[in-house]
Amino acid sequence: MTRISLNNEWWFADEWTDALADMHPGSVGAAEPETAHLQAVRLPHTMRATPAGSFPEQDTQGVAGYLRTLRVPRDWDGATVRLVLDGAAHHATVWCNGQAIGDHACGYTAGVFDLTSALRPGDDNVIAVRLDSRASLDQPPFGGVVDYMTFGGLYRDAWIEVLPALHLGEPHVRADGAGRLEVDVPVVGTVREQLRLRATLRDARGAVLVEHEVDVMIGPGDLDPGRTGAGDLDPGNPAAGSLSTGDHGIARLSTTVANVPLWSPASPTLHELSLTLIAGDEPVHERTAHERTVHERTVRVGFRTVEFDGRGLRINGEPTVLRGLNRHQSWPYLGDAVPARGQRLDAEILHGELGCTVVRTSHYPQSHHFIDRCDELGLLVITEIPGWQHIGGADWKSRAVQNTRDMVRQWRHHPSIIAWGVRINESADDAELYAATNAVAHELDPTRPTTGVRNFAKSELREDVYAFNDFSHTGANGGALRPARVTPDTTRGYLVSEHTGHMFPTKSHDDEAHRLDHALRHARVTSDALHQGAGGVLGWSMFDYQTQRDFGSGDRICHHGVLDMFRNPKLAAATYASQADPAVVGHVLVPSSTMEFGDHAGSARGSVVVFTNADEVRLYRGDAYVGAFAPSADYAGLAHPPVVIDDLIGEQLVRDEGLSPRRSRAITRVLLDVARFGLTALPPSTKATLAWLIASRQLTMAQGAAYFDRYLGSWGGRAVPWRFEAVTDGQTVASVTRAPAQRLVLQALPDTTTLVEGDTWDLASIRLRLVDEHGTPQHYARRSAVLELTGDAALVGPAHVPFVGGSAGTYVRTTGRPGSATLRVRTDGADDVVLHFTIDDHRSGTVAVAEPKEHA
Ligand code: GAL
Questions:
Q1: Is the model's pTM score more than 0.85?
Q2: Closest atom of ligand 1 to CA, residue 389
Q3: Distance of CA 146 from the midpoint of ligand 1 (Å)
Q4: Which of 216, 158, 156, 207 shows the shortest CA–CA distance to 185?
């Protein structure tokens, strides 16, 4: 098969007019009345560029047009030619040379359009797409309210598939943990001779592990159009034309690969499977010079078995804890339209920075670039059909069933996907609809469980896994409901699919106590849910996202992320990172406090919590050792519970002031409670201890104040520096100093400085942060970043960006030219940061995407 990228050279009309459906090749992009206003664009493309927040949802909606000419060589005559729009938000109607081809009514699955009958080989052809992104569409997720922006645009890749008259359809490959390999692949076209199917399995280095051949039996028994369609990435829409003419059937192949390295989260081994359709009269296994390759397809496969029941998830028989986050697919300025590198970066952040083992692609299937990276990293994925609470009428429902079909067919080759979400997120029970979606998913993929996300208990359970959005935690109660209170069948799998989110919106610039509460709520729910036997728990959400008028904080943003919109961490990010092994995320050591008490009422700093994946934390005041602190015993479900430091004095009064242990204990307690509650709000028992200390002349108020200044730092005292050390196996593995900031340091952290002009534009994500000389985030620094870009690239978004909570971000995109570019980032009072980018030229016919930098 030839796959030709079609990302470049589109012409965009902000408003569709019917004349655009029937333009001549010469008029596209020319100075003619209907086309003079068209803008040259490349995919991924967002219909309307937007600010980072504070814009109405109508700004992202409309009916736009995309036009493109396509030079078709003569030798395509007889071939099947299909246009694939991988993401067309939300309702695409396609014409080719003025002939209506068909439509696709889902913004989150690929639309496939058979252009064959309309094409003129040897000529320039015109493809026109009318794209409707209005919320008035009668299709998921529209009809009710939706808590996220439904950005319009051709926002994923587009390509042309040129298939020979006789060809292989989209294969369905099943590769399990016992090394069994089963392939069903449609054979489409008119069969005139003996055909064979050869499967060649190669490892990552290209070494052949197995080669297996079967005769393709196309007899009456195999002529089953339903099954053929089921195996194919087809238009699913009669208007788009039937995929195949003449005879077609399914070729089936099954073999066992001895000792094949399996795919697992810890060792995500991927293989390449080539399927070759061979014509020739020779019998199977006798490779001869007469054989002729008719068609070949290649898929990436991972061998693994997924089981998910009341005991939890097992991959290849190994119990696997699901701990992760929900992800939307939006960015500042770009809407959902971000090319491969940005998609891959999100998977790297989830895995390598947040230590997640699972992500839910709420509330729709997401970019294959993102899921490809999950496949490579071993990050497990739960994906689901589009929708948000609302279920529409009969047409709407049949689209939801079609979406299920498309989702399973188009995403089932990804080994990282462990379950299909076949209910509209948080919708009511609907026996008929969910019987249908479950049946479709089970039929098209018997190897994976189905699930479906509810926001109520004891719902009708047709899925293999009950998924529940558990928002019961208030900060003061248990973290999660017990599974038996929620699911009607505890023998089946159980999952907390969301928590926290709107229960505790948190901004990077909220005060320290709020940010700590946010982090601890994520810890509490994760711990309790897992401890009570949930098979997994996923927080809401990975990052802050733009939303619609019915949600958000007045700025159309749900501040629900453990990251901000630019993917900078809030404190709660450390809750996740600290659960993972240092081999995955490095040594995590994040104290909750800057140790400045000015962020707290009455200067009462309260307990300091340290998020770490080390064995213990040692604390020093300056160079004086305070004590060692172990992970809290209060989080039984966590691999690495937070370390709660509620004694910043430790042994110092005995060691350095010569007090007796008893007197030291009493004075320490008073001092710590003053730090926690303030002098005027001491608990009665502490008040009594203080009174006794003074009456017995063991302490004067002046002495107490001096101790407080020296050991805790106070209003009117001199601030003291603190050092936290993470200790594992007796060794210090990380160290963090918190002291009054002397210097502002600007950080500009790019995901890459090598961009690639390939089949489309490329994007570098640059996270901007203000820290002090010790790396402590400067949450309240009133600054903006001034961005100056020169050279062969362009800035995305404004050239001045405010730091919010000490964080900001920007993006640099390629413009079609290879070369180089320089970004200078400036902010008052800190040294400039200068980043040099190179833009490599990979503009061939083949997909060329450079490996992004690792984010360990
Ligand atoms: C859930 C919903 C999510 C998001 C979240 C906020 O009800 O499924 O999409 O709105 O609440 O906490």
A1: yes
A2: 8
A3: 9
A4: 216
Side-chain half-sphere CA neighbours of 98 within 13 A: 6
With beta carbons less than 8 A apart as the criterion, state whether 285 and 319 touch. Answer: no
Q: Is 678 exposed, middle or buried (0-12, 13-18, 19+ CB in 10 A)?
A: middle
How many Cβ atoms sit within 10 Å of the Cβ of residue 636?
Answer: 12
Task: Give the residue, out of 327, 361, 469, 497, with the most ligand 1 atoms within 8 A of its beta carbon, to mutate for a pocket test.
Answer: 469
Q: In the structure encoding, which two tokens stand for residue 724, read together?
A: 């936290």
pLDDT along the chain (856 residues), means of 10: 91 96 88 85 96 94 97 93 98 98 98 97 96 98 97 98 94 98 92 90 96 78 36 34 46 95 98 94 56 93 98 98 98 98 98 98 98 98 98 98 98 98 98 98 98 98 98 98 98 98 98 97 98 98 97 96 98 98 98 92 87 98 95 98 95 94 96 88 95 95 92 81 97 97 97 96 98 98 98 98 98 97 98 98 56 34
The amino acid occupying position 169 is G
Residue nearest atom 5 of ligand 1, based on CA coordinates: 501
Report CA(422)–ligand 1 centroid distance (Å): 17
Q: Is the dihedral of CA 732, 733, 736, 737 positive or negative?
A: positive
**Do the Cβ atoms of 536 and 135 come closer than 8 Å?**
no
Q: Which residues line ligand 1 (CB under 6 A)?
A: 147, 362, 425-426, 455, 469, 498, 501-502, 540, 560
Q: Rounded to the nearest whole angstrom, what is the distance from the C-alpha of residue 654 to the centroid of ligand 1?
A: 52
Amino acid letter at 773?
E
